[in-house]
Amino acid sequence: MRSAARGPSPLRGGRNHRQAGAEHGTTIVEAALALPLFFLLVLGIIWFGLAFSSYQALVTAAREGARYGVAPLANANYNLPTANEIAQRSCNYLKSGVLGGLAQCSNYGGSTPPAITGCTDPTIKTADNIYVGVVPVPYTIAYIGSNQTATLNQTDVVVGIRKTVPIMGFTLHLTTCSAMRSENN
Predict the structure, then answer these.
(1) Which of 31, 122, 132, 129 has the alpha carbon at shortest distance from 82?
(2) Are 62 and 160 in contact (CB under 8 A)?
(3) pLDDT tens digits, residue range 129-184?
(4) What is the pLDDT of residues 90-127, one digit of tens each?
(5) Could you state, in order of their start, the residue ranges of all structural domains in the chain?
(6) Which residues, including other chains, have CB under 8 Å from residue 27's CB and lie 6 or more apart?
(7) What is the 3-state secondary structure (H, E, C) of the chain?
(8) Do 168 and 43 meet the contact criterion of CB atoms below 8 Å apart?
């Protein structure tokens, strides 16, 4: 006896079989269009992560150098560190970063780092290096109840770092600066 159902049977390779094959082709085309965009997005996230991590290493190194520069050294009669010592301290923190330190980091035992006067100094943007500035800042204090004033000197320690970072075929020029004031002098 024959079945009352009309139309092609999926078991005999009818119309439903042909539609499933067409969907497989569509899936391959969609994947060919979407996967490059997905991989580009993933590479962009990785690139941004490396760049951000490198910048954070520079910021940490500059802050640590400035912090070290304003703290008097107990083993040096409570004098402030020299520019060489400040630059070397920054180098030590920079070496622990994702993309390493600077080539100049081994030279600060015998040579002085370039000097700067503040974070807006254009010298920072000239070449990859660690820049250190020890700037005396005079200020005047007026005594309440009298016409007397006193002039005191404080010291600003400024540490700027510029580093060129190659990431995935691109070159980034990262620059940061940190300034702290020593009120112990």
Answers:
(1) 132
(2) yes
(3) 899 998 888 878 878 877 888 887 788 899 999 988 887 778 889 999 999 988 76
(4) 988 888 776 677 766 767 767 788 899 888 999 999 88
(5) 16-182
(6) none
(7) CCCCCCCCCHHHCCHHHHHHHHHHHHHHHHHHHHHHHHHHHHHHHHHHHHHHHHHHHHHHHHHHHHHHHHCCEHHHCCECCCHHHHHHHHHHHHHCCCCCCCHHHHHCCCCCCCECCCCCCHHHHCCCEEEEEEEEEEEEEECCCCCCEEEEEEEEEEEEEEEEEEECCEEEEEEEEEEEEECCC
(8) yes
Q: Are 170 and 151 in contact (CB under 8 A)?
A: no
- Binning pLDDT at 50, 70 and 90, where does residue 35 land? very high
The reported pTM is: 0.73
* CA separation for the pair 135, 116 (Å, rounded): 9
**53 close to 96: Cβ distance less than 8 angstroms:** no
Return d(Cα 62, Cα 159) in angstroms, integer.
5
Token digits of residue 179: 């300034």
Specify the pLDDT at position 19: 57
Name the nearest CA neighbour of 67 among 183, 185, 184, 182: 182
Question: Alpha-carbon distance 164 to 172, whole Å?
Answer: 6
